[in-house]
User: Fold these one by one.
Assistant:
Number 1:
Amino acid sequence: MKIAIIAVTERGAGLGVKVSSILKESGHQANIFTVPGAAFAIDGVEKLQGSLGSEMGWLFKEHRGLVMIMALGIVIRTIAPHICDKKSDPAVVAMDEGGSHAISVLSGHTGGANDLARLIARHTGARAVITTATDVMGAPAVDVLARDFKLEPEPADSVKKINAALARGEKLHWFSEYPLPLEESEYLSPRPWEALENHCGDWRALVTGRSNMVAGDRDVLLRPRNLVAGVGSKKGIERSAVIAEITGALAASGRSSLCLKAMATIEQKSFEKGIVEAAEELKVPLLSFKIKDINRAIEDFGLKKSEYVTGKMGVGGVCEPAAMLACRKGILLAGKIKGPGVTVALAEEKYGWWE
C-alpha cells in the first residue's frame, strides 16, 4: 500500500519517521510530509508546496493510506471535501504527536484503516481506536472478508445489512462454489454449496461467478475477481468493439462482469489504442506477454494454432494463450470467440486468485 504520513509539528514528524520505518518493514511504501511553514528539518521529511488543505486533493487521490499526525479535528476538516465512497476512499488513520492513540478515521474495512491502525499500534505502543460495530463485537465484517479474498459484493447495500446482523450476534452462512480457506466460528458458518436451499431464511454469503444468481433479502453475492479476458485484434480496432466482445463472452459463459480482473494480450498489441481504452473503461489492468511466452503457452496448454495468426504475428494465437498466462491456476473457460476485427477468450482461476 502506498501511504502518506503527514505531520504538522517537529515532534509529530519524529513520530512519522518511526511509523514510516514500521510500514516499510511491513511491505508498504511510505513517504513523510509536513507543512511548508515548518521551522524544522528532518531527514526524510518533505515539505508540501502549499497548505495542507490545498495539497490534500492529490494526497487523497494518489495514496491508498494516510497517517495524519495531528488533532482529529484538523484531520476531519481537511479530508471532508474529498470523501467519496468506501470503495475509492483511502484508509485514514489519525495519531496524536505523543503516539498514544492510532484512530481509524475513514475506510476502516474496505480501505484497511482498522488494520493499519492496529499495525501502527502494535509496533509503537499506541492504543488502536476502532469504532466499527463488527470489530467491537469481534465479528468478521463481510467487506473485510470480501477485500481479503478479492470478492466484489453485489448488491453493495447488502453489506451494511449483513454487517449489522453480525454486530447483533447473528450468524452468517457462507456458501462458495470455490474452495476458500474459511473455518467455522461464532459468527461464520461455511457450508457446502449443495446445501444452499436448506438455508433460505438465514443470512447468506454466496461466492459465485454465475450471472443468473439473484440475491435474496438476506443474501450478499460475492463475485470472485478471477477471470481474465485474452484479447487479439486487427490494427486500429475500436474500444467499443473490444468491450462488446468481452461483454458477449462473459454473457455466453454465464459469468458476472464483476468477475473480470484483467485483460491480457501479446506485447505488440499492448499499445493498441482500442485495447488500452477498453481496459481503462472496464477498470482492469492490461497485461502483456512476449512472443516466446505466448508460443510456450500454446504448447504447454495444448492450444490450437492459427496459421493466419502465425503468418501475421509470428505466434500460433493470441487471445487464448494470453488469457491462460495471466491465470496462474486457470482453466480455459471460453475458447477463442471471433468478432469483427477482434478475438476474445476467457480464462478462470478456480483457486488462489486472492493471493
Number 2:
Amino acid sequence: MKYAEHIMDLVGHTPLVRLSSVTDGIEATVLAKIEYLNPGGSVKDRIAVKFIEEAEARGDLKPGGTIVEPTSGNTGVGLAMVAQRKGYKCVFVCPDKVAEDKRNVLKAYGAEVVVCPTSVAPDDPNSYYSVSDRLAREIEGGFKPNQYENQAGPASHYETTGPEIWEDTDGRVTHFVAGVGTGGTITGTARYLLEASADRESGRVQIIGADPEGSVYSGGTGRPYLVEGVGEDIWPGAYDPSVVDEVIAVSDAESFDMTRRLAKEEGLLVGGSCGMAVVAAL
C-alpha cells in the first residue's frame, strides 16, 4: 500500500500549470507553481516543517512547548499542523487586516489567535511584532520561530522549491517571479536557481520580486495596503536583496482584479498575493 504517515509528509513537489488565458498576446510560456496544493494550502508549509525540526534539534523547542508567531495566516496554518503532529500548543498574532475566515482556520487547528492593529509602527508595543515578542517571553516554554529573521526559511526553499522548479522546467526557466513578504521564498529559491543557471549558455535566471504599492521593498514607506501576506514595513533578515534583479510595485486594484481573473479564466482560486505576482510576471 502507498500512503503517508502524516499529512505533513506531503509538503512540497507541487505542480506547475501553464497560464493560457490571462497571458493572451504574450509569447512567453508563463507557469504558475500551485502551492495551494500543499496540505496547509500555501507555500508556508515548507518553512513550518524546517523551523520546527531545527528548533527541536537545537533544544529551543521542548516537549509540551508553545509556538508563538506573528502571521497573516498561512505560516500559522503550517506551524499548527506540525504542532498537532508533535504535541505543541500554538499562539498566533495577526494584524487586524487579516480576514476573519483566516483567523477561524487557525482556531480550527486548535491555536489561540491574538489580533493587533495594522496601522501602528513596527516598534509600537501594540504591533503584532512586539506582541509576539512579549508573549514568547511570558509564556512558559514559549518559542518564536520568527519567520522574518530565521534563516531556515530561505534554506527550506533552497532545498525544495528551487530544485523543483529547475527540474520541472528541465533547466529552461528564464525568470522567477515571487511576491516578497518575509523574503524567504524569493531568497532561497533565487539562490538555488542562480547557482543552477550560473554557467548556462542562455544566461542565468532573472529574479523578479512582486511588491504591493506602499511596501518598503519597492521604495514605499510601509503604509497600509490591502493585499495580505506580502510587503513589509521593516527589512527582514530573511530577505537578501542581492539576489533580486528587480522589484515591481503592484497596486491593490491590479492585484485583486487579476485574482478574480485567475479564478474566472484559469480555474485557479487564489489570494491577492498570487494575483499580484501574476501582474508583475506579465
